[in-house]
Specification:
Layout: H1 5-10, E1 16-18, H2 27-35, E2 39-43, H3 50-61, E3 69-74, H4 83-92, E4 97-102, H5 109-114, E5 118-123, H6 126-135, E6 139-143, H7 158-168, E7 173-176, H8 182-190, E8 195-197, H9 200-203, H10 212-220, E9 226-229, E10 237-240, H11 243-252, H12 268-277, H13 301-322
Parallel strand pairs: 1-2, 1-8, 2-3, 3-4, 4-5, 5-6, 6-7, 7-8
Antiparallel strand pairs: 9-10
Helix pairs in contact: 2-3, 3-4, 8-13
Length: about 325
């Protein structure tokens, strides 16, 4: 068993995390992750109301008695989101670990910490990670440019970003972006992280409550089958390559383009309903990282976690034997 600063501090068996994923982080998947001894996060805003989130937490507890958390992504929206109510639902449900992402988590930290909730904040740069540490978060998930979702605007890959963050921070670092294998876990640990986050790999599992067409396409795709969009609107995002994402990239580069020109194509509801729910791979945006190139099959969560850990253990045993001593 791999024990690290993160597993000790957060009371889990393995240094593996399934972070929050909109439309994906629901009870069946997160309970399955928890049952392996890894740490999974329900996605709060996938649920339409705080009451629905409480129900989803209860649904997860019916399927596991092991620790799991909730992701609370804080983003500006047209329609105000009752974040205080979602936070209260998390606390009242007895959740003890939360993953925050997006905007400044500090307004939520006093209530979370008063309730004994540990907070992991997702960051895409060392400066933002340091800011989160100063504000009092308990760990940082650092997203390299390979990641699905929003990698920030610095375009720094994990091979540099992970050790830079680990050197600068005093709290545990979770490596995120482009990780799907035991080799990725070993590399991240060698770079100074104490756990890894896998999102796209957990999408391609039997327990993920998304359409089988999406899972099969992830396994079929290569590392080149993503598109970076919204850079022109200062909201860089990595998504799966399809006709919609390529059209958005084209329209965004036209002189004078604004987000309104792509808003219908980029609708989050469109992606969740037409792609993730209905399986029409060409009718909306859906998130995927460059880790697609490392995923060859759709497997159970237990199989994925077991394979990652077994490969990691084997590599750590074999690696010294591959190094030739030239002294």
């Amino acid at each position: 068993m791999l024990r690290t600063h993160f597993t000790t501090e957060f009371g889990i068996d393995h240094p593996l995390v399934c972070g929050g994923m909109t439309g994906v982080g629901t009870a069946r998947l997160i309970a399955a992750v928890a049952n392996t001894g890894a740490l999974g996060f329900l996605t709060a805003l996938t649920q339409p109301t705080p009451e629905a989130l409480s129900d989803e937490i209860a649904r997860t507890r019916e399927q596991t008695d092991k620790p799991f958390g909730v992701n609370l992504t804080i983003l500006p929206t047209i329609d105000p989101i009752p974040y205080d109510e979602y936070r209260a639902a998390i606390i009242e449900s007895g959740i003890k670990v939360v993953e925050t992402a997006g905007s400044d988590p500090s307004p939520h930290l006093p209530d979370f910490h008063a309730a004994g909730v540990r907070v992991i904040h997702k960051a895409t740069s060392v400066r933002h990670a340091l800011s989160a540490q100063r504000k009092g978060v308990d760990a940082v998930s650092i997203d390299g440019f390979e990641c699905a979702g929003h990698p920030g605007s610095d375009d720094v890959g994990g091979l540099v970003l992970i050790p830079a963050a680990a050197k600068a921070l005093d709290i545990p670092v979770i490596a995120s972006g482009g990780i799907a294998t035991g080799a990725g876990l070993v590399a991240a640990l060698a770079l100074g992280a104490s756990a890894v986050n896998m999102g796209t790999r957990f999408m391609a599992t039997t327990e993920a409550e998304i359409h089988p067409h999406v899972k099969a396409q992830i396994a079929a795709n290569s590392e080149r089958d993503t598109v970076v969009v919204f850079r022109e609107f200062r909201n860089t995002a990595r998504v799966a390559r399809n006709s919609i994402s390529e059209k958005i990239a084209e329209l965004s580069q036209r002189p004078g383009a604004t987000f309104d020109d792509v808003a219908d194509l980029a609708s989050g509801r469109r992606g969740r309903e037409r792609v993730l729910r209905d399986g029409d791979l060409e009718d909306g945006l859906w998130w995927a990282s460059q880790a697609q190139g490392l995923i060859e099959s759709v497997d159970s969560v237990a199989t994925v976690v077991s394979a990652v850990l077994e490969e990691a253990e084997r590599l750590m045993t074999e690696l010294p034997q591959t190094i030739v001593n030239r002294a």
